[in-house]
Amino acid sequence: MDRLADFFNIDPSLLFDILNFTGKFLAFQVAFFILVFITLRVFKKMNKKSENDFYFRIQKNLKLPVILLSTTLSLWLPLSLSSFPETISSIASKALSILFITLFSWIVIRFIQLVKFMVFRQYDINQKDNLKARKVLTQFKIIERVMITLTVIIAISLILMSFSGIKKIGVSLIASAGVTGIIIGLAAQKIIGGFLAGIQIAITQPIRLDDVVIVENEWGRIEEINLTYVVVKIWDERRLVLPSTYFIEKPFQNWTRSNSRILGTVFIYTDYNIDFDAIRNETTRLLKETPLWDGRVNVLQVTNTTEKTVETRLLVSATDSPTAWDLRVYLRENIIKFIQQKFPDSLPKSRVLIKND
Fold this sequence. Notes:
Blueprint: H1 2-8, H2 12-49, H3 54-81, H4 86-122, H5 131-161, H6 164-176, H7 178-187, H8 189-204, E1 212-215, E2 218-225, E3 229-234, E4 239-243, H9 246-249, E5 253-254, E6 262-270, H10 276-289, E7 298-305, E8 310-318, H11 321-342
Antiparallel strand pairs: 1-2, 1-5, 2-3, 3-4, 6-8, 7-8
């Protein structure tokens, strides 16, 4: 040992500590490696027996951070059992502590994402009757972001608290920065308000994912709900980005608040001599021939008259707003064709009475 210490020109006691640390590190590393290997093999076999890929996702998402965490523990445990000089052990312990906090936070975030996968797998938002799925997915998306944000904030706080110098500076700054804190608080009021509005949307759910809404005189669907903003996909593929506070503070239309069923109207303008029974029978025939109609509502009413035309309203129902739009277009086109072919004299016209003196 003394000859080896002389060869490397270091203190024999320090060399002994290094060799002792290396042996313990290798022992812990082998033990953790065997434990991780067995765990991964178990998950692999369970994935083969299972009908879904949940265990595969656990293995894929947690494999790397768990291996890195086990390596960190393999370094930290021998270090705590060794007698290195205080300067070396202090720096190494602090570095390993920071690494441990970072890796553990990474695992927590990956675990949250796995839980999200489990939840999303149970609910299909692409179904026609997807109200329950939209409720759950909307809540969980925001909860996921809140939990990930809190995890990152806690991790950063723990890392900063490990430095005593920063802790003292922070205490002195807090004690002497009352006015500054008030100014910063007022400046961040909108940011905090947006954050709280996002949480309020998750709890009260005035909107949900895939809801049909009218905002800023635009028709669209809720595509994303984040903590501070909401993305609305407009019918022509544009995206309208609004702050979360918009849906708390301003009125808007939600066409799918309780269900997706909706009524659609078609207005027809004709002359006074139109046969309303014929229009009513033709409307019923057209509705029965199309899958766009859900069979609930079929009403024809004369809603207004002027000196030149009669306004007739066709009130029909559909399963959702896009289907209702297609149904209205279908009815409008075919009823106009029917009037053109069967009652051409009933199209709107202007009359001029000429008197011969």
